[in-house]
Amino acid sequence: MKNLLLAILLILTFIQPSFSAGSEEESSSSTSSDSGTSSGGDSSASKSGEYSTSKTDYEKAVKLIKKAKKYEIKGKTEKAEKRFKKALKYLLKSNKKFPNKADTLNYLGFTTRKLGDFETGEKYYLEGLAIEPNHIGINEYLGELYVATRRINLAKERLDILKNCNCEEYQQLKEVIEGTKKSKY
């Protein structure tokens, strides 16, 4: 019996799996403006047969956006802008490879808005809402864009959609609309 177990163990040790990592992006609904938890799904097996642990374009972009936000808080706007521009490139690649993902469109809207392109940001947000109308992050960020572009009635529509989410995004957008709080993004 021991010999049989040892033989099975040795066989399993030397067998190389002949399949690669998944190639489809998984989409999950954001419950926070920061969550954007979709997996980019674009990792694959390397030429040597080992699995790649490299991050997807989407994951790289999210990491860069988080760094950019931290730089903004510290007042390092040039460094933040550089990260947003790099994140935008990764998001565009991810969106091309895996189109129609609400989380990706949310970050595309956010990133272009942060780079001062409100028109394109709004376009991405609206594309995301066409896919997932109750996306919390998109509704909050689009509401903030509407406040920044002085379209308060449209911002209030986004707030109305968030009213039953029991989430911090509702309160944040409400305060931005009321003028009691400046948008942190």
Helix content: 55-70%
Name the beta content range: under 5%
- CATH architecture name of the domain at 57-133: Alpha Horseshoe
**Distance linking N and C termini:** 64 Å
The computed structural class is: mainly alpha
Strand segment tally: 0
Can you count the helices?
Answer: 8
Low-confidence stretches: 9-51
What's the order of the H and E elements?
HHHHHHHH
The CATH topology of the domain at 57-133 is what? Serine Threonine Protein Phosphatase 5, Tetratricopeptide repeat
Major beta sheet, specifics? none
Average pLDDT works out at 80
Shape: globular
Rg (C-alpha, Å): 21 Å
CATH class of the domain at 57-133 equals Mainly Alpha
CATH superfamily grouping of the domain at 57-133: Tetratricopeptide repeat domain
Task: Summarize this structure briefly.
The protein has 185 residues and is an all-alpha fold. It has helices at residues 2-14, 57-73, 77-97, 102-114, 118-131, 136-148, 152-162, 168-178.
Care to describe what's here?
- About 23% of the residues have low confidence.
- Helix content is 61%, strand content 0%.
- α6 runs antiparallel to α7.
- By secondary structure, it is mainly α.
- It is built from eight helices and no strands.
